[in-house]
User: Fold this.
Amino acid sequence: MRRVFAVVPAHNEAMTVAETVRALRQLPAEVVVVADACTDETAQRAHETGATVLVRRERGDKARALAKGLRWIQEQQPSDDDVVLLVDADVGTSASEVTHLLEAVASNGTDMAIGVLPPAGRHGGFGLVARFARWALQRRTGERFRAPLSGQRAMRWQTVRQLTALAGGFGVEVGMTIDVARARARVQEVDVCMVHRHTGRSWRGFLHRARQGWHVLLASMGVRQVTLWTDDC
Assistant:
């Protein structure tokens, strides 16, 4: 019987992580939350809702949090046909929408399904980083993606274990898409009605996107800082 695992990287997401975990467990999925350099009650809230909780005390890094969660799955001895969900902690109850990604991988022959969320409108930025990421992916893979930065994904374990390293920080999704596509795996984008917190057009939002753009540039250049199957996270 196919097993479903969900890795939820979470940095100070005490307000939403419990709803996210509950939605994922109803799929059902075995949920591991990686509390990434948290200073709030994220780990406690996740534990109370039945998730396995791993704690990173070093400086927050989404790629390293994901790597820690994926290594935990490896310890559970998954089969090649098992499915891994990557879900951001701030999506709350809309995490149930990843069932569409799960279906794409489980029944349509897709190796990695990427969730395409509704447009952010004025809640987001001006789309500069997304356009750059879209251009970089097309240049590296020959494919055009609608949601190059989406963190909502489903992957066959066979596809996951072919990866050897992840791009660091906020470049992790772009790097993963490049590596999976160049390995000739089938990648499909799927519309999902998910919501998450947007950084907006404040100075903090623009600072976040500047960091994100730098990380995407490094990922597009082939820089992979996080060794996936070595515990250095």
